[in-house]
Amino acid sequence: MASIKRGSQFTVHVTKVDYKGWQNSYRLSNDCVELIKITDIRPHIICIGFSGDKNEFKEYPEQVGKTGGDEWRIYGGHRLWLAPENMPRSYSPDNSPVDFKKHPGLVRLIQPVEASTGIQLKIDIALDTESADVPVTRRLRNFNLWSMTLTP
Asked: Residue 30's domain spans which residues?
């Protein structure tokens, strides 16, 4: 486990990487913690942990590196989906790329509007410059002509 010196200032790094076959992935790190965000598929954080240590999230080896197609896959990691859970709404395939933008102090992942639900998913990820904190903000946007009761 990494030790954190109180009052330390960490440098936040955002680096494009190939993560296990997902060629459009990004490593976000702050000298204490790191995470991997895949942009080849729906907003997933596939890996998180202390720098140089193990991934605290589950990965499914048979799904690693896969993209495209119409089947729903459980890739692992952190995933945002719609609640209340409902078939098929909560199980839209996560197989399409997402938009990745760097902003001051955070990165933003924006999924295209899901054709089957009319919902767009967004995730903002920020790394703290003084701790192992990783604030994650999740949003759902309804593009339908009617209201829906949902939660991330």
From this structure: 13-142
Burial tier of 81 (Cβ tally within 10 Å: 0-12, 13-18, 19+): middle
pLDDT in tens, 136-152: 999 989 999 999 887 77
**Does some domain include residue 76?**
yes
Assess if residue 20 is contained within a domain: yes
3-state SS of the chain: helix, strand, coil percent to 5? 0, 40, 60
| Rounded average pLDDT over 100-114 | 92
Structural domain total, the chain: 1
Question: How far is 30 from 132, CA to CA, in rounded Å?
Answer: 8
Residue 6 covered by a domain:
no
66 close to 94: Cβ distance less than 8 angstroms: no
Q: What is the pTM of this model?
A: 0.86
82 neighbors 89 (Cβ within 8 angstroms)? yes
5 within a domain of the structure (yes/no): no
Closest CA to 98 of 45, 38, 151: 38
